[in-house]
Write the structure tokens for this entry.
Amino acid sequence: MSTSPHLFRCHPNLSDEVNRNVAQSEIEGGVFLNDLTPSTVLEVQTQHHRYQVVILGDGKALISGHPLYCPQPVQVAIAGSTWGGSMLKRRFVGRGMHLEFRHPDYRTPIVTSRVKEIREPHVRHVLNQYAGEDRRR
């Protein structure tokens, strides 16, 4: 997983808590979505669900993995990640944070449980998974 080469520098106009959270996101790791090419596939394991995210570009993605909101892939706009409050790290998926995205069928953003792991699965695994779904139809 690549991370942005630009490390965080504490900002004098932000509170210690905000600076600490941003610095912690750099330590925990994550990925800036703008650094990924379209069609990149991510597996995002949260405390409660495993999501598959296919990057489409420009903040858009196909996401699946939640039994209510996205049991099948649905196109969403990924806003970024939060620490559980209103502050958002835009277009970033970070460990220890909550992924936030806009679903076309819901007025308010969907916020996941805390992200435990982010992986880029092998392409063969993803192709086999979709091939298996096609055979069941």
